[in-house]
Amino acid sequence: MRLALYVTCLVDLMRPSVGFAALRLLEATGAEVVVPEGQTCCGQPAWNAGNRPLAVDLAKKAMGELEGYDYVVIPSGSCTDQIRNVYPRLLADYPDWGSRAQALAGRVYELTSFLADVAKVDFDSPEFAGSVSYHDSCKGLRGLGIKRQPRELLLKVRGLSLKEMPDCEECCGFGGAFSVTFGEVSTQIVDRKCDSIAAAGADVVVGGDLGCLINIEGRLRRRGDETTRVLHIAEVLGGEGC
Amino acid sequence: MATASRSQAMHFHARAGEKLRNAGLQRALQKAKPLFVGKRAKGIAALAEDGLDFEMLRSTGKNIRNRTLADLDVWLDLFEERATAAGADVLWARDGAEVSRLVVDIARRHGVSKVAKSKSMLSEEAQLNEALADADIRPVETDLGEYIVQLAGEAPSHIIAPAVHKTISEVEALFAKEHGRPLETRTSADIPAMAQEARAVLREHFLSAGMGISGANFLIAETGSAALVTNEGNGRMVTTLPKIHVVITGIEKIVPTLEDFATLMRLLPRSATGQSISNYVSLLTGTKREGDHDGPEKTVFILVDNGRADLLGSDYQDMLRCIRCGACMNHCPVYFSLGGHAYGWVYPGPMGSVLTPLLTGIENALDLPHASTGCNQCGAVCPVDIPLPTLMHRLREEQNERRLRPWSERLALKIWAWLAGKPALYRWFARRAVRYLNWLADGSGRIRIFGLAPEWTAGRDLPVSSGRTFHELYSARKKT
């Protein structure tokens, strides 16, 4: 089995450790893992801004890099949603590209759903002493139906206990450009998320999308919470964040 | 688009800050949200007791609405025929101004000086209360929430809970002043007493109004009836006591049959308030007949377009399925941060972010389609499966197509996309960017003030990496 790891632009820039943790987890499945060269961004910022021509250009570019593998795995619900659910719509009217996008969509997986549903590997997870609370990111949950998989995987980690936060399915207020253009509103929304996190009382907040996590960590620290750790699920499962 | 001038939707961004700093508003919203969400969740869960499944029901509801919209003209013609046969008049209004003209005209011809109103968002679209007041006809809102906002000189901030933005003490102060009595200290336990107080005032109005105006939750084509779904009973008073009853509603509110109505009624109250059925459901057909104890002597339906027909066959037709339950705003993180007034026009929340630009002009509500995190909590709860984020996204695209986005945003995206298309150059810039971020963080791992994204760091730190990109570290690792 030959896998492509699409690390995402945010992981590249903001937290490389997520990429390496994902790499280690995927290699542990026994598959050959390739990090396709030339990968930059799936084009979501252009798409969200309503700029279709730019989104199309970047979609075509990304497809060129991601075709030809058995699976493409991405440590992000929102980038996976973009390639899986948006690309086929975006490229539907371009001869040949539409069917290629459809074909690719069926092979693109968010990291936890790949590990739990496709690879089904009982990987040798490291110990992780502490309690974690999982934040369901919107695109992963409502776009891809990911809910059970991350929890299933977390519970396999020795020493880890799960403490659900109230309203774990509620948006953290990130929303890409929204967090910058409507920064104050975004802050208000993430503040409620931080209240939920505080109510859960876990040592670590875990999620599957780095955008949400940076948003949550940034607000927790600004509120003066210096102790609650914020980790990507790849970091917890891959032992990178210990 | 006669209503565009009154819309304040262009000021969404400026108003947002103001609303975030309004402590009373924030308290009111924080209290309301879990109630709305919790009640709906219970109502939907209870469907199982009747052997019903929400997803199946909503797909049936969606089909009913789609089927109706596909032949809207046919059902409207049938409605006109049946309603007329039952003794009502059916009038058509192209826009809000025409609604006001028609209503004022009817009122004048019958010497009406006071109108009792049940809740009607379309009358808000038409600015009917202002038009009536200008014609020396007094409009009295009788829905408790509408009554409160009318006393306060405000607009409704929610389509089913017009005064949700007000705290109990604000309402108490308003009642004391307007009802001419001393101020008391009130808690939520006093709400029934306050409602009783409003009721006593409103009773006089029901009995003395020459005309009643209501909206309609649905129009039923096969019977020529208006269906009214309410909880306070004021709807019944308004539609039966005054001699004239005027129903003002949008042309899209029609459903073919009573059975269709029954299906949608399984979805509407549950999605709105979590009730399996509202306290009152009225089917109003024609006028008072021989032997009837009550009912109007004259019933007039005013069926309003105001931009709706243009949506038929457009990319936005799905929006016409809306049954105005409010579930989208009740589950919207943005709505519950700001309340409805920030949205600047009649309809707030996700459905408003779609409808306001469509009905008042895309160029007059540029912020609204962007006032969303894209979380799709609205789309997930919509009882007729309107893909609200997709429609907002389509509006964003149309803003781009019509060159309505700021040049700075277009340029920034263009440069970024160009760069993202050139991996070698992109890597070079990325390496510089993360070093710059790391330098700004000054060893602390986070940036507290970031000039390139001031709205981010106004309320949050920006956690940064160690100053190396993934791809940089990965190539170094591969070489060793």
Q: Would you kindly provide a written description of the structure presented here, covering whatever features stand out?
A:
The complex is a heterodimer of chains A (about 240) and B (about 475). Chain A is globular and about 50 Å long. Chain A has about 240 residues and is an alpha/beta fold. In chain A, helix 11 crosses helix 12. The two termini of chain A are about 30 Å apart. In chain A, the strands form 2 sheets. Chain A has a 4-stranded parallel beta sheet, with helices on both faces. In chain A, strand 7, helix 12 and strand 8 form a beta-alpha-beta unit. The model of chain A has no long low-confidence stretch (mean pLDDT about 95). Chain A contains 13 helices and 8 strands. Chain A has 2 domains: about 120 residues; about 110 residues, Rossmann fold, CATH 3.40.50. Chain B has about 475 residues and is α/β, with parallel strands linked by helices. Helices cover about 50% and strands about 10% of the residues of chain B. In chain B, strand 5 and strand 6 form a beta hairpin. Classes of the chains: A alpha/beta (about 240), B alpha/beta (about 475). The interface between A and B is large, with 64 and 62 residues.
